[in-house]
Specification:
Elements: H1 7-21, E1 25-30, E2 46-50, E3 56-61, E4 65-72, E5 75-82, E6 86-91, E7 97-100, E8 146-147
Parallel strand pairs: 7-8
Antiparallel strand pairs: 1-2, 1-6, 3-4, 4-5, 6-7
Length: about 150
């Protein structure tokens, strides 16, 4: 019997913590051919998604896949992200959250999917709502923890 990864459980736990605290949970995702996102919002092989209940509809966070509907530029889109591609989940307001190693992407995918964990709170360049303020600019190290 194979062991189930803790990653989807940790993602759901951080999501729930963010929602309970009134924070907007953001997902940093390495984009490959298994990821269904608007490609014009992808930068350097990654995208940052606002997955708060106010920004999404029909959010399903399974053990293998995270799927929901969201608006990009006013147009509703279906989003599908393999859990293996999630590199971090964090609160937009304070940057607290957790970072993960991204599983090896299938060959032929973009090689520039490395995620700079230190830059995640400032990498929020594709929020799902137009009136999202900039995240706080704190000096020093990120609050994200790399989980292997």
């Amino acid at each position: 019997m194979s062991e189930i990864s803790t990653k989807p459980y940790l993602i759901r736990a951080i999501f729930q913590w963010c929602v309970d605290q009134g924070f907007a949970p953001y997902l940093a995702v390495a984009v490959d051919n298994r990821t269904t996102v608007p490609r014009n919002f992808v930068q350097d092989g990654q995208i940052v998604l606002n997955i708060s209940p106010d920004a999404t509809q029909s959010l399903v966070m399974g053990n293998e896949l995270i799927a929901f509907q969201a608006r990009f530029g006013g147009i509703a889109q279906n989003i599908s992200v393999p859990v293996d591609n999630v590199s971090a989940i964090y609160a937009r307001e304070n940057g607290h959250g957790m970072a993960f190693e991204v599983s090896a992407l299938p060959s032929g995918d973009a090689a520039d999917t490395d995620v700079n964990i230190e830059s995640l709170p400032s990498a929020v360049s594709s929020p799902l709502t137009d009136d999202v303020p900039e995240p706080p600019k704190g000096g020093g190290r990120s609050h994200l923890k790399l989980v292997k």
